[in-house]
Amino acid sequence: MSEPIYIHRYTLHSRRGLNSRSDRTAHEGLLILINGGVGCIHPWEVLGDPSLDEVLDDLKNRRLFRPLVRAAVKCAMVDGAARRAGVSLFDGVRVPRSHATIVGGRDKIDEALTAGFDVVKMKAGRDAPAELQLMHEVHADHPELRWRLDFNNVLGGGELREFVKSMGESLRSKIDFLEDPCRTDDPAWQGIREVYGVPLAIDRDVPIAGNQFRYAVIKPALDDVTAVCAKAMLEGWRLVLTSYMDHPIGQCYAAWCAGKVEKRFYGLLDPVAGLMTHGLFEPNAFIDRMGPVQPEWRSPVGTGLGFDDLIDELNWEMLR
């Protein structure tokens, strides 16, 4: 890779902490510009990602061994080719609908229902009793609503068993999956699946995971999508493709990848993705272009991944 690399630093501000391990509300990332194409690097250090300083050093030295860096460069290459051709990457691509990503209480779930969502993904594990009470209350009012729970490995095996047991049969039947509820080497994984029949999902270390999971959550910002699709076919997984809760550039790249996977690997991808995450952040020019948070994807106008005028207006710094 001999082309010069330009960067733009950004900060997204969330209304509250976005995962079960951190209360941080300011989230820093990088946009990269290579040969006219844009990519996004948005590390989540609390989940084990490298720091921005580390990925910047990789970019300066043209090192692509880290998945975050490699994926962003690939995004920039794909985006740049489309921009130079004067076409949108979304032409002829059907993006699947999405679940609502919930960070908050009953008010956020009610907003999602009003917007037309019938599946919600909720960050869980910080306060299990309160979360269970909320789920039971919503289930009583909206028994058709389906749930996906993301724990970021914060529960122990005993806590997980008690959580699932306390759901009751009716609510358990509406659980699409439990994502990373505890460490993958905890025997509770197998017990929960065998005793309660609740599907399990994994989103970290997907390439080395086994067949104890029914779902794999993949993020184009981090994962080699084609390689994971091949493994999913061997393991019998269903794939749920999501954004990395990152900049709209990264969000749009995830949406484009979801549409391409559905076309290339028909039937492998779950029909409900997790792409509508821009509503987790305070508005800015890019987020405003994404439109309302709704189940159906709406592609931004422009060439490549869109946002042509906004990208031109950014302050770009050449890496040296």
Automatic annotation (TrEMBL):
Residues annotated as transmembrane: none
Pfam families found in the cross-reference section: MR_MLE_C, OSBS_N
SUPFAM superfamilies cross-referenced by the UniProt entry: Enolase C-terminal domain-like
Protein name per UniProt: Mandelate racemase/muconate lactonizing enzyme C-terminal domain-containing protein
Molecular function in Gene Ontology: lyase activity; metal ion binding
Keyword presence, Protein transport: no
Mandelate racemase/muconate lactonizing enzyme C-terminal domain location: 106-199
Keywords attached to this entry: Lyase, Magnesium, Metal-binding
Database matches in SMART domains: MR_MLE
